[in-house]
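Case study: Enoyl-CoA hydratase.
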Amino acid sequence: MPLSTEVVDGTIAVVTMNYPPVNALPVAGWFALADRLRELGADHSVHVVVLRAEGRGFNAGVDIKEMQRTEGFEAILGANKGCYAAFKAVYECAVPVVAAVHGFCLGGGVGLVGNCDSVVASDDAYFGVPEVDRGALGAATHLARLVPQHLMRTLYFTGRTIPATALVQHGSVVETVPRAELDATALGLAREIAAKDPRVIRAAKEALNGIDPVDVHRSYRFEQGFTFELNLAGVADERRDAFVQDGKAAR
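Here is what the predicted structure looks like once written out:
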């Protein structure tokens, strides 16, 4: 099942993404995730959400192959709207969202994690935004929530990745653990939050969003405008075609 939910201890909703081979979500997947998070936030029996994934890595962003086999701009528009909806749903979920990240977390994955409330990761996890190499822009808003500004710009311009162990030093990842311990660690943190009075935690989530110094929705939407420009100019299509061809050559 591409998207599943398990309730632990009656109060913790564990949402699992499973889109083989690399958890690059199709358009429908982003909207499905957004819907699921909104539903869970509206359910007052849910105190915390844990967002995790199966497979080789947490998330590889959007499904570029879906874009390139779809005529016109329908897929790129869908991916942009879907990502916006999913990132927004994470940020606005009425309860805290804990990300449990393993392996790669790229592009749209950084968009999800950057909007989560707490992040734990396996010691093999790494983060990056390769949008520049794909002829797109986006998720700098969310990468900037994980690393300081100058490092964010360097990572963004170069497409480099950064290990989760380094993010612990920046305070954006709570801790890194062996992959075999990741789920238990994320659940341990979720249980700690779930044990609090849920009325206070829901108020705290709303309050913390209200004092956030950056409007993540407006900031990300501004970035997306440049992606549309690059698509109209034909640049994005060229870069996505090159990515797909490189993937075929690698096989």
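For the exam, be able to explain this: DSSP finds eleven helices and eleven strands in the chain.
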